[in-house]
Amino acid sequence: MTGRNRNTNGKIEAIIESCRSEGKWKRVIELAEELKIGSPSNYECLSNFLVGEGKLESYLEEHPPIESNFTKAKSGLQEAKNYLTLVTGESGRRAGIALDAHLLLAKLLYACGQYEESLENFVKAELNSLSEKELTLRSLKILAESYAIKGLSLENQGLKGTSKFKQSEREAEMVTCFERAADLGLLYLQEQDLADIASETRCMGAILETALQRAPIVLIKFGRLLDAIERYRSMLNAVETKTTQSLRLTLARQLAEVLLRGVSGTIYTPPNKCVPSKNTATPRKLWKPKKYSGRNYFTPKNLPEETILLLLIAETLAVRDAVLSQSTEFRVARSHALGNAAAVYDLLTLATMRWGQVGLLHESFEKALKFSFGEQHIWRQYSFSLASLGRHAHALRALKETSKLVPQDSVLCLMSSRLCYEELGLTKDGLYWAQQAQNKDIKGLRPSRAQLYVGIGYQQVAASTNLKSQKEHYGKLAFEALEKAVQIDPNDHLSEYYLALQHAMNYNIIDALYHIRIALSLRAEHASSLHLFALLLTANRRPKEALLVVEDACDEFPENLHLLHVKAYLELHLHDATTALATVQKMFLIWRELYESQVTGFENETEKNSDTKSIFQMHSAQSDKDTSSVHAASLAASRVEQALSEAASSLSSFSPRPGPQGAWMIQLKVWLLLADIYLSMGQPNEAMFCIQEASQIYPLSHQIMYMRGQVHVYLCQWHDAKQCFLNAVSANPCHTEALCALGETHHILGEPRLAEKMIKDAARLDPNSPNIWYSLGKVMETLGDHQAAADCMATALQLEPSCPVLPFTTIALTFE
């Protein structure tokens, strides 16, 4: 109120002004009546204004200005309207309250849904021509709300102008109103903090809160995205108050969402870092909020930095507001706080996964679990973050907890099954989770991948067992499950692929080729299907066609080391060692591109804290010429390997390479492949050098011991070769190539009975290998059992045409 004369009732006026600032409207009305009684001639106009203001604000506190309340407001605010209308005339102008009366009348009419009349009062108040000057706390709020109401009225009224110029003019006016409302609203809240208003009376009101959030949204609506971003930044840079803490969370989240969804790196502009000069002082505008400033504040330099910074700020605010109590009286507050936090975490998930900051996401979910008891969404996201981080065992435990919260969700069971199959080597556990998913899908009467996952589980169990009866039993179950999966969804390329693989593992080459062709017709660009197709062609005595398939596949998937591995073996098989050597060199280059950044500078402590498989466990599951890349070794083998792993940990000369151990195991395989190629080229020294390089990664590998024995065989160093093969068998009793090579060495050293024992053990583990039967035939011939020798040779001849260049089990599991 400006230009108001003061007299002996100045004390009452001061109390009234204080009550207006604190929103004590009943007291304001009482004091206004008292003021009127004390001096009716001088204060009648002021008293009418205060009573009208008090009745308006009291009503709106109980009935917010929303559309559902418009009809009721027209009758409920009639008395307040009468009081305010009384002071808009000459007497009000003389008393200096007519302007405020018009502004409050505009607010009243807006609460009744009368936008045209509301805008007319702003014209009468000459709102657009007001000059900046010092205002009281209450006047600041009235002015901020006035700009907000004018903007909202213009927006609700719609763009009635027919010309583009009129529309543009109206849009600009609307934006200006919301921006001024935001600036004045923030300034009002800052001044409110300075005035030390009681916390229970601190409230910006629905109109002001709407305007603060509406300003950037309107800019986005009108296609001014960069201006909207700057408006968000400006509001977030305003000095925080106790009232704006929840608003700050909303603004930070909204800006992060805008940056994630609407901004690309090409149009992004980082925020400016304004550092005040030492010599010049820029005066602050009176109607602008105070901003943070300083020399040491962090300023984001790019889109990822700003987005993640905003989300971390929002997360901090959300965690601070979290309700830990599980009491029913806090149910609504807990639900509201959790909703805010979940929205922030969803955006943080998108941002961190996009820019490879999974560790940051995991830390955030660790904090979220403290107030997310029983909230399946948070637990689900937490388990996914663990899986992305490579902490697969922890991820499985988190998925189990999540599954308890949503017992009918089969997706969680499928995720658990996939982790067990693909990462943890827990085949039977994976089969259990697949069966759980299958049971839930049956209850829900909807088909899914559960049937396929059951088939994969049975297939893995069959491949990993050494007992013929069990292998046949689980193989039959795998066939039944996979055939049913194909029937459920005939267009699923993955079901056809695994059915083809099952036929291949049983050496039904014709049937396998039929189903793999169907799989490729459903999805031609599927690396594992192309891999299997190439191996089936080699088993069908068509190695040159297989090489063409693999070469085309490598063109399509140039970074697929599994396909390149097959390509090198095919080239070696076709006696083209020079080309195979070039392929291996390419594999090393690709490995460097894919994994070098992961292993360089990696902290050992990080790996120790990881619950991924140990280097030995990972190595034992890697594919080689006779062991599956997707199946666990037998129980006896795992016990031997565990003992050797413990021995390895005691060797002071060995420590695992820093970084993801799976990457090092891939490199180890490439070194051994290179050694094989050099040996075929008649270069044992280079082969031994490759073996030494592989030993630097993991010296107790049975594959390294076997390959070293092959070099000794080439050099006719039979006793050394025997020791190497014996070491390899000790490390992994299921390594059939080492068993067969040990038997052949015993044979050459004149120990045919030991040779017979070793080779028969190999034949029991892999009865489909023609090389093993041929070696056994030579041993039986030496022993004088010519009938047995003839039978062995006949078996080798029978198996040889259907033997692939590499075992079918060397194809890695795929779920894509």
Automatic annotation (TrEMBL):
<dbReference type="Pfam" id="PF13432">
    <property type="entry name" value="TPR_16"/>
</dbReference>
<feature type="repeat" description="TPR">
    <location>
        <begin position="736"/>
        <end position="769"/>
    </location>
</feature>
<dbReference type="InterPro" id="IPR045819">
    <property type="entry name" value="TTC7_N"/>
</dbReference>
<feature type="domain" description="Tetratricopeptide repeat protein 7 N-terminal">
    <location>
        <begin position="1"/>
        <end position="364"/>
    </location>
</feature>
<dbReference type="InterPro" id="IPR051722">
    <property type="entry name" value="Endocytosis_PI4K-reg_protein"/>
</dbReference>
<dbReference type="GO" id="GO:0072659">
    <property type="term" value="P:protein localization to plasma membrane"/>
</dbReference>
<dbReference type="Pfam" id="PF19440">
    <property type="entry name" value="TTC7_N"/>
</dbReference>
<dbReference type="GO" id="GO:0005886">
    <property type="term" value="C:plasma membrane"/>
</dbReference>
<comment type="function">
    <text>Involved in endocytosis.</text>
</comment>
<protein>
    <submittedName>
        <fullName>Tetratricopeptide repeat protein 7B</fullName>
    </submittedName>
</protein>
<dbReference type="GO" id="GO:0046854">
    <property type="term" value="P:phosphatidylinositol phosphate biosynthetic process"/>
</dbReference>
<feature type="repeat" description="TPR">
    <location>
        <begin position="770"/>
        <end position="803"/>
    </location>
</feature>
<dbReference type="InterPro" id="IPR019734">
    <property type="entry name" value="TPR_rpt"/>
</dbReference>
<dbReference type="Pfam" id="PF13181">
    <property type="entry name" value="TPR_8"/>
</dbReference>
<keyword id="KW-0802">TPR repeat</keyword>
<comment type="similarity">
    <text>Belongs to the YPP1 family.</text>
</comment>
<dbReference type="InterPro" id="IPR011990">
    <property type="entry name" value="TPR-like_helical_dom_sf"/>
</dbReference>
